[in-house]
Write a structure and sequence with these properties.
alpha+beta; single chain; two-stranded antiparallel sheet; about 120 residues; globular
Length: about 120
């Protein structure tokens, strides 16, 4: 899966909203390759620029937002976003195969390592 979900299309759920309110994250669409089954993508220093209301078809970007999140010694906002691609399982039972469970556990473990 590629980072950003359907942010450049008509998507307006969790991932797409985050990319919309923190627009500098959109650069990752240009520089990040397709995620492999053992990869996550870390976005460091993400600043929020917009407020919003709603979700999905009720989502609406509102006013400018002044992000008062503290900065680290490099001047980056102390905000870390971890992108982990999800798989849609048409048959919910297939998510419990050894292969699929291992994939999800590896990605979850990668997120913990960064802490």
């Amino acid at each position: 899966m590629y980072i950003g979900g359907a942010v450049m299309d008509e998507g307006c759920v969790q991932e797409e909203i985050r990319f919309t309110i923190s627009t500098e994250m959109l650069v990752s669409l240009l520089v990040c390759e397709k995620m492999q089954s053992n990869e996550c993508i870390f976005l460091i220093g993400c600043e929020q620029f917009l407020t919003y209301t709603g979700y999905a078809n009720t989502f609406k970007a509102n006013a400018d937002y002044i992000d008062k999140t503290p900065k680290d010694s490099w001047g980056r906002k102390l905000c870390h976003v971890v992108a982990m691609d999800a798989i849609y399982y048409a048959n919910p039972l297939t998510q419990y195969t050894v292969e699929n469970m291992a994939r999800e556990l590896i990605k979850a473990h990668l997120m913990e390592i960064e802490k």
